[in-house]
Amino acid sequence: RRWKGRDLNGSEKGPAGEIVHYVFGIASAVAFGATLSVLGIAGIAWGVVFGIALFVAIDELGLWALGLAKGPWNYALSIHGYALTAHVVYGLALGSGYYLIRSVVLS
Fold it and tell me: Of 4, 6, 66, 98, which residue is 20 to 30 A from 16 by alpha carbon distance?
């Protein structure tokens, strides 16, 4: 909400939010890949589990706890369904990508 000591105006909040979202998504993907690599496991299902965990921990609770979003009860069920679906697809893409890299490219 603040950047370099000042509040962001309305036209700046959208692009700033997108940047933070993509940077967090990339960092999450790196953490996912590093964790699976250390554990020596690969599987598409792990990506789905990871996507659901991100949805609950960050989307539903984390942003609210940080004061960056209203509490989950303030949003329609359809918004939760869309966000959960998006995180499952993200996890599916992560799990599939990791599985392909690990089993095809690196084998």
Answer: 98
pLDDT tens sequence across 46-66: 999 999 999 999 999 999 998
CB 101 within 8 A of CB 49: no
What is the pTM for the complete model shown? Answer: 0.85
> Is the CB of residue 102 less than 8 Å from the CB of residue 42?
yes
* Cα Rg, the chain, nearest whole Å: 16
β-pairing, 2-3 with 6-7? Answer: antiparallel
Helix, coil or strand: residue 7: strand
Question: What phi and psi, each to the nearest 5 degrees, are found at residue 96?
Answer: -65, -45
